[in-house]
Amino acid sequence: MLKNPLKLLNWSVFFQTQIFMLPIMLLFYQSNGLTKGDYFLFQGIFSIAALCFEVPAGYIADWISRKKVLILSYALFLLRLVLWYFLANSQNISFNYWIILIGELLYAASKALFSGIADGYIYDLLKSKGQTTRMLKRYGRMNFFMSAGTAIASLLGAKMYEDFGVMTLIVIEIVFNSIALGMLFFLPDVPSERTESLTTKEKYHDLFKIAKSALTNEKIKYYIGYSAMAVAASMIFVWSFQPLMQVAGIPVALFGVVYFINHAFRALASYMLDKTMKVFTLKALGITIYGLFIVAFFAAIGMLHIKTVWINMAIMTFICFVIASQLTFTLASVSRIHTFVSSSIRSTVLSLNTMVSRLLTGFVLILFKFLLDGVNMQSAFYIYLGLFCLSAYPLIRLLRQPDTKTN
Fold it and tell me: 43, 150, 249, 394: which has the fewest C-beta neighbours closer than 10 Å?
């Protein structure tokens, strides 16, 4: 038995998130004959596909070993890389289109299996040791390793792309993901607490009953709604990084620096999660990130008219900080939800929480495809600013609830 299995989980997450292609993904799309519109469309499809897997994945994890679900998650991501290595970059653009799309769908399934299951695994492992009060810290540590892995890979990815090409990046990712997958086999199993036997029809009825209960629960539904809108706003910025930097004239070599800053901030936000939430209440943090996002949208619009590299890099750094602030709220909100649901349905409810975020993210990213076909990027950001302002409703509703300490 491992003395501290959560450290092994953290390191497996670190290796699995060595995504060297992240800062040059748009360039990878374009090298295969795809457009900026396809880039946003595929990310939107990714989010919609992920949400289709999200609740079933969490529901499955409530019935079988979470460890097995994590292993399947990593295996699907590895399959995506192998598919792209052997079949992408052909002379047939139509073929490339479908190969890249299939890869993104595999990634969506992988993310859906991981989301809501990893935190459930941590919580149940801590519960078995009587240490649930350490959930916020341990969950934050795992997300720190996740963001740190991506940050390091992003910093190196753009330069390595210029020196060695995209295929070398894919090979390196395959190696790191194989190591990460191997680590999971050494984790202890955390058995499901659900042992009763149900028919298939009863299982689906149970699934929708749990979903309805979560979405009508006054203690959590507005946190789910506001967190989802904040996540969608973050994804608008994240997937706009490369198009924004292209328009702003930022050199490709600096793309990796921006992604490093983004994930370094995310890593810091995750690492400091328990300390941050001793200073802020969820309500105060919710108000803060609302104001930060409003400023970020105007900053992004201004960036489209500024050609000075250092100013645009400063704007990108500020946007990265806003995204990290959103992550703090989301992680703390997830930790809070754990205190309001039983262990037997925890993965389902947490996956539902992520599903709502993916639904809104998929909508705004697919919308970006059509906005770019009809209007310019500046107009698109004004439209998104207007849509984000609607998040004031769930924010106001959660502000009216009594404060609850986050564990």
Answer: 249
- pTM of the full structure: 0.79
**Do residues 96 and 203 touch, judged by C-beta distance below 8 A?**
no
